[in-house]
Amino acid sequence: MNEPSRMGFRVDNCSIERTLDIVGEKWTFLVLREAFGGVRRFADMQAITGAPRQVLSARLARLVDEGLLRKVPYREPGQRQRDEYRLTEKGRDLYPLLVALMHWGDRYLAEEGPPVLLTHRDCGAPIELRFHCAAGHEVSGPREVTPLPGPGADLKSA
């Protein structure tokens, strides 16, 4: 009997791998963290993240090329035109991923407690991430999930 983790999916057709190819690097996650926090300008992102100028420039260009950020021109009085970087819908859809990484780090790496607490703006309650199936049942972890080939599955030939 085939176990679900050995269904024969091709590695080059893995959505996790394709996603990591775009966002799976420290500086990219830090840029996204700041964008989610409302930071839009290059100089501000550089000052907050500490990213080297060339690295930050390359990461921003890649995020724009991939459609996660878009450039919006602005001009301060007496200055040349520059660009702000704003999240697109595709970029905003990564928010749960960043929150999940933050919560994992809070649980396992923050010895003195979480450095940042996320709360719901309307009621002040802490933000929690939970998995639910389409029928509304809460899913507590991977043992309650069955992976099946999807419409885009590229199965290895035997």
Characterization of the model:
It contains 6 helices and 4 strands; from the N terminus they run ααααββααββ. The chain has 158 residues and is an alpha+beta fold. The strands form 2 sheets. A two-stranded antiparallel sheet has the order 1-2. The protein has a two-stranded antiparallel ribbon with strand order 3-4. A hairpin with a 5-residue loop joins strand 3 and strand 4 (138-139). Residues 1-5 have low confidence and may be disordered.
Write the layout of secondary structure elements.
Layout: H1 15-23, H2 26-36, H3 42-49, H4 53-65, E1 69-74, E2 82-87, H5 89-92, H6 95-108, E3 131-132, E4 138-139
Antiparallel strand pairs: 1-2, 3-4
Low-confidence stretches: 1-5
Write the H/E string, N to C: HHHHEEHHEE
State the helical fraction: 25-40%
Quote the average pLDDT: 90
Biggest β-sheet: strands ordered side by side in the sheet = 1-2
What are the salient characteristics of this protein?
158 residues; alpha+beta; two-stranded antiparallel sheet; two-stranded antiparallel ribbon; 6 helices; 37% helix
Concise summary:
With 158 residues, the protein is an alpha+beta fold. It is built from six helices and four strands.
